[in-house]
Amino acid sequence: MNTPAILPPGSPKRPARERIVPLEFEPLDQYLQRRKKLNEIESLGHAAYPAKYDWTHTPKQIGEQFGQRRAEQLSAERVEVRVAGRIVALRPHGKAAFAHLTGDGVRLQIYVKLDVVGEAAYKLFQLLDLGDIIGVSGHLFRTKTNELTVWVEKLTLLNKALLPLPEKWHGLADVEMRYRRRYLDLIVTERAREIFLRRAQIIRELRRFFDERGYVEVETPMMHPILGGATARPFVTRHNTFDMDLYLRIAPELYLKRLVVGGLDRVYEINRNFRNEGIDAIHQPEFTMLEFYQAYSDAGALMDLTETLFRELVTTVCGTAAITYGEATLDFSRFTRLSMREAICKYWPAATGPAPSTAEIVARGGPRRAAERYNEFARAQGTDLAGEFGSPSDGELVGELFELIAEKHLVQPTFIYDFPIEISPLAKRRADEPSLADRFELFIAGMEIANGFSELNDPADQERRFREQVEKGGQESPKEVDIDYIRALSHGLPPTAGEGIGIDRLVMLLTNSHAIREVILFPLLRAGTAEAADTDSSEANGSDDTAPGQRSK
RNA sequence: AGGGGCGUAGCUCAGUGGUAGAGCAGCGGCCUUUUAAGCCGAAGGUCGUGGGUCCGAUCCCCACCGCCCCUACCA
User: Fold this and answer.
1) CA-to-C1' distance for A2 and B24, Å?
2) d(CA A27, CA A129)
3) What percent of chain A has pLDDT over 70?
4) What's the pTM value of the predicted model, to 2 decimals?
């Protein structure tokens, strides 16, 4: 793209009607052609960018209200409508033409006839292109092929599109372009539109679910002075006035629990988290998380609630409790529950010999022995080993074995519970089994979807675990203990259960999408500008008026 | 980060060691019930970027850029 021609400061105000066009876009020939048509349209006396159009129906409403009317009824009733939309198909036939407008994602055919609209309007119509936005008024009728159509009597230009739409049959196939120019994707790819409408519906239903159960929706800081609430590498930013570094939050957890201390016994937040880590089919650096907390509750109650939530949500949004996801049919009418140890035993690879019993895994040194047996097999397979790095504790080994052996098999909705305490720094210890946290995760289609636990509310235990994290060091650990959080706990956090649900992954499941980018409107891509997909972006600036010395930044 | 794949007209894609093609879009013409409208005509390209091999590279080799997939990282 050509760089903008900069108006020197202090230059006289430009005349109101003069249109400065500093930017030009590919395809240049078509862009210039359309600008030429725009000029012609204006010189014919039409406003190019009128402020308003008084419509009576959207294309969708016309379909809903008159879609059932037969041809004879329509000609008898002579329903007058004014409707606006974008031209997405154009079939001129000399002195008459068909076109399709879209609005609300619905296509509506219009019929424009020279005899009917008159010379002037037909002249305007001939200067229109695919992508232009118009308003038409007239009555409804059915064509020979029985399609509900507007018999156009008046035509109004609402916006001349200066750039063409993508190819009408194949649409946008270049995924990079689809993400960088999502506006085009949404016009052209019906499925993309449906995904984001459904995403909105899912979030609406989630809010409804929690609202009607008395949870309060809150917003907590996105910028945190101390890292916390999860283990992840953060983005760092800077506040100038306070001269301080801040982290974009990796989780809202510690703030939400402060609110429970403050007497908001049931709270939830739906908002973004930011994690400075890898990008792949199920990870994006900013992603949306639902977190909710309820006082006087525990992890077991949360599992029940979660099951209800998912079953209701899926049924409402998809119309059935059994949905298709890729090759699988996911049945949300019943959830499996397995302890982490049971899951390891259940999916223990047969080639490794008989699976250990859960008792063996629980025994002191048991995870180490199981890992050694597993690793023999993994070495032969050339796959990853358990406990390969550092000197993991028994609990950490159980977590690794679970991920290596069981996680990918958890296709149907499955709760995994009894997490080792070592990998659960914010969860409450189980009274009867101190090596375990009262924690669960929900797995669906091999993805971790939710994570919930009984919250650690013993300030001394929490302080000890925070100090261990700080001592451990590394980019993922906080540099200092969050003293104020310990202070809040010292004022008393009631027995509380809390859970996080990854909204993006949930939307993936309910839209049968297999990449998180498909369910995020503007996923992060390198370079980050829509221009990067263009062939020439930096050079070819024909009018280089700016002397080098004048450039300032 | 490692491995694999891709990058050709505005879009969707063919193709070849001898400087390139189709459909759609755009342009000119014809066409008053079409729906991927049709017919006729003309135009459109630094074959991602930069090096190398070769008489000659869009094609072969190397590097870089971007995207995709797999693996790794990632509570």
Assistant:
1) 27
2) 15
3) 91
4) 0.88
Contact A110, A140 (CB under 8 A): no
**Number of alpha carbons in the 13 Å side-chain half-sphere of residue A468:** 12
Q: Is the pLDDT at A550 greater than 50, yes or no? A: no
Contact A253, A489 (CB under 8 A): no
Residue A48 and residue A97 in contact, taking contact as beta carbons nearer than 8 Å: no
pLDDT at A543 over 50: no
Cα A137 from chain centroid (whole Å): 38
Question: Which nucleotide has the least CA–C1' distance to A144?
Answer: B33
- Residue A110: burial class (beta carbons within 10 Å; 0-12, 13-18, 19+): buried
**pLDDT score of A544:** 29
A25 strand B contact, CB < 7 Å: no
Average pLDDT, chain A: 87
Answer whether residue A35 shows pLDDT above 60.
yes
Q: Which of residues 382-411 of A touch strand B (CB under 7 A)?
A: 383-384
CA angle, A291 then A212 then A298, to 5°: 45
Class of residue A52 by CB neighbours under 10 A (exposed 0-12, middle 13-18, buried 19+) = exposed
Q: Convert the pLDDT of each residue in A112-152 to its tens digit.
A: 999 999 999 999 999 999 999 999 999 999 999 999 999 99
Q: Answer whether any strand B atom is within 7 A of the Cβ of A528.
A: no
Q: In the block, which residue shows the tokens 């609406």?
A: A204
Least Cα distance to A415 among A262, A543, A286, A301 occurs for: A301
Q: With a cut of 50, say whether residue A196 has pLDDT above it.
A: yes
Tell which strand B nucleotides have any atom below 7 Å from a protein Cβ. 1, 9-13, 23-27, 30-38, 44, 46, 48, 65-75
For residues A251-264, average pLDDT: 97
Say if residues A100 and A107 touch (Cβ distance below 8 Å): yes
Question: Closest Cα to residue A117, out of A106, A107, A128?
Answer: A128
Tell me what pLDDT residue A22 has: 58
- A375 or A504, which is more confident? A504
Cα–chain center distance at A508: 9
DSSP per position, A235-287 = PEEEETTTTEEEEEPS--HHHHHHHHHTT--EEEEEEEEE--S--BTTB-SEE
Q: For residues A192 and A220, is the Cβ–Cβ distance under 8 A?
A: no
